[in-house]
Amino acid sequence: LQPIALEIESLAIARGLTDNTDGARAILDLGATRSAIIIYDQGGVRFSTAINFSGEIITTALEQKLNLDYKTAEELKIKTGLNYTKDFTNYLKIVDDLISDLIKEIKRIILYYQEHYPDSHPIEQIGLCGGMAEMQNLAPTLGRRLKIRCELADPWKNINKKNLSETEKKQGLTMVSATGLAMRAIINPYNE
Q1: Which of 181, 178, 175 has its CA nearest to residue 4?
Q2: How many CB atoms lie within 10 A of CB 63?
Q3: pLDDT tens profile 16-73
Q4: What are phi and psi of 27, to 5 degrees?
Q5: What Cα–Cα distance (Å) separates residue 45 from each residue in 39, 58, 82, 121?
Q6: Interatomic CA distance for residues 74 and 56, integer angstroms
């Protein structure tokens, strides 16, 4: 195997999820072990940084605070999302506290971007990708509390998806950096 495209992950993700329309948007890549925010403005990635949030942080908090084993905590998180469950009455507070920290971090980053990039545009929307993006009720909760439109990103926005199986389509949010790299390889293929 020979590599045909190498670049930082934020560029690959942005390529896979954006087009060249005007306006600024943020991409929130929420993964199992790490997360990042990418700000796309004026036709390119203008700012990117890691965020102290992940699916593992939520699972670990549930393990510790609800006294659950890892597998049960992970299943509870996936099944319940950002909803109340009568089986574990403290569940929503635990998860909501972590989401509140995430929201504070997003606000801080957006404010930093707008203060340090004087020609920046206001963030009009946030697209969510990564494995944690599909957490039940997460996108509407973020949108309501940030007062910015938040929605699941379309991982197949720039790719012909007619030959994809339903399983492949569902995996899209976790594969955005790979599809963005593949798009880069098509733009500048390896020359022998």
Answers
A1: 181
A2: 17
A3: 888 767 679 999 999 999 999 999 998 889 999 999 999 999 999 999 999 999 999 9
A4: -115, 125
A5: 6, 29, 30, 13
A6: 8
